[in-house]
Amino acid sequence: MSWRTVVVSSSAKLDYQMGYLVVRKDTTTKIHLGEIRTLLIESTAVSLTAALLSELVKKKVKVIFCDEKRNPSAEMMPYYGSHDCSLKIKRQTTWSDDIKGAVWTEIVFEKIRQQKCLLQELGKNEAMLLQEYLGEIEYGDATNREGHAAKVYFNALFGKSFTRTDDLLINAALNYGYSILLSAFNREIVLNGYLTQLGLFHDNMFNQFNLASDLMEPFRPLVDRLVSHMTLVEFEHTQKMELVNLMNQEVIINERCELISNAIKIYCKSVFDALEDADVSLIRFYRK
């Protein structure tokens, strides 16, 4: 099972050799492709061979490219992530609005519940208000409890004047962490044979990752927890690596302790089972 997140943060040449990723700098490092789950190219001074990229696709390694500011800007996705992807996509286009609405309701409930748990953990009184919102959630979140909870939640975490649109280090850290999560969800969606563009609730014509944007919602508080504990006087390589390493932390899912990266895999598969069988009881959420 792949588990490594490999980060290349300075000038290097990357190529493929007999099953290994070869990183050539002042010294040469070899890492077996079977161990790599994600390859993060943080520097624009990195060159890669087409042979390596081809093998990374075959091994289903998620490759993320960063811009000149070292922020994730693109990712590499295979055309075919599953042997039966044509069948899966046909089914995806026929998921009923009823089951999509039911699954989205479960996702929103769990997201707010995780937000409430984080506020309780931090001793914030606003957790009580989020508990009230949980009791008010309607099918498809028709009354937008998610939006109301988000305002209360972020103000409790980062201060009354905080908004997600402000140009702040906190928002830079949140956005970076969310982009790592989004990429992990895109990987699992493609590996399961589905299209990332067709969401349950998110339906932005300019968003290629509507489905990942839906599924990742309950996992956002994991990023929020980490950022809330960071003392941000800058947001550079060290802070970014803290967020990348989030994927190697552990949570409980299916009554087992799993890495977050593997919990995402289990959760995504359970959501797809729920959508295919029209049974939301099949969804498996994590516990911190």
Automatic annotation (TrEMBL):
Its EC number is 3.1.-.-. Gene3D superfamilies: CRISPR-associated endonuclease Cas1, C-terminal domain, CRISPR-associated endonuclease Cas1, N-terminal domain. Keywords: Antiviral defense, DNA-binding, Endonuclease, Hydrolase, Magnesium, Manganese, Metal-binding, Nuclease. GO terms for biological process: defense response to virus; maintenance of CRISPR repeat elements. Transmembrane segments: none annotated. Its cofactor is Mg(2+); Mn(2+). Coiled coil: none annotated. The keyword Hydrolase applies. InterPro entries: Cas1, CRISPR-assoc_Cas1, CRISPR-assoc_Cas1_C, CRISPR-assoc_Cas1_N, CRISPR-assoc_Cas1_NMENI. Mn(2+) binds at E146, H202, E217. It comes from the Bacteria. GO terms for molecular function: DNA binding; DNA endonuclease activity; hydrolase activity; metal ion binding. Belongs to the CRISPR-associated endonuclease Cas1 family. Homodimer, forms a heterotetramer with a Cas2 homodimer. CRISPR (clustered regularly interspaced short palindromic repeat), is an adaptive immune system that provides protection against mobile genetic elements (viruses, transposable elements and conjugative plasmids). CRISPR clusters contain spacers, sequences complementary to antecedent mobile elements, and target invading nucleic acids. CRISPR clusters are transcribed and processed into CRISPR RNA (crRNA). Acts as a dsDNA endonuclease. Involved in the integration of spacer DNA into the CRISPR cassette. This is CRISPR-associated endonuclease Cas1. It comes from Eubacterium ramulus. The gene is cas1.
